[in-house]
């Protein structure tokens, strides 16, 4: 009757290893972010209030030993995503479900600023309504622009003006995390050297291998094709792989590529 317990761990993408730091006292975590000012990781966790509403509990985690402390609880605020801005504060996305319909729920989204030192959560502005299905949400920052994923929809947000623009729909049902490579504490790209003319290395490489008509390798009339995409870090170590497949149908032509595994 083994029940896996949540724990904090280091992920080494070069060696594909997971090193446990300590057990976690947090049963449910919505999102997490690293604050360079305090050198702590902050986690938001939902808490059901006595009245049936949703509060948000904020935890701080010392990454050296995995010790977690409850910082504060924000009443009647459902924070589902947050990202530190490099100044000891964080942008946070608040979500309130306002419509219930299979496949087309509605959520009112609001942007907040969390001050970790002052333990305050201040609403900056309302962003509008998100329509769709989302089990998870996440957010990151790059060059002063926020990027938010709810379900499989990607948005950009101008925190100064409050403009929220849908950039596209991702080929996944739900995304649970997003970040920019080589980002600095203040959310800028941090790439390149002192020479502005020097070609920048974005640290992302990939290979794509396609097999047509005999992807399964066992049937004479096999019409399944596959596409394997492997991503590498700046040291050419493989860090993730995605495989897509599609089947040719003589009457209808070829189907679009569909993700088989990630």
Can you offer a commentary on this structure?
The chain has strands at 7-12, 17-23, 31-35, 40-48, 54-61, 68-74, 79-84, 89-99, 105-115, 120-132, 137-142, 145-150, 153-158, 163-169, 205-211, 224-232, 238-249, 253-254, 258-261. By secondary structure, it is an all-beta fold. The strands form 5 sheets. Strands 15, 16, 17, 18 and 19 form a 5-stranded antiparallel β-sheet that branches. A hairpin with a 5-residue loop joins strand 4 (40-48) and strand 5 (54-61). Mean pLDDT is 75; it is low at 181-199.
Structure in a nutshell:
0% of the residues lie in helices and 54% in strands. The protein has no helices and 19 strands. The two termini are 29 Å apart.
Outline: globular
Radius of gyration: 21 Å
Low-confidence segments = 181-199
Class by helix and strand content? mainly beta
Strands, total number:
19
Q: Helix content range of the residues, please?
A: under 10%
Biggest pleated sheet: 5 strands, antiparallel
What portion of the residues fall into strands of 2 or more residues? over 45%
Order of helices and strands: EEEEEEEEEEEEEEEEEEE
Gap between N and C termini, in Å? 29 Å
SS field, number of helical segments:
0
Average pLDDT number: 75
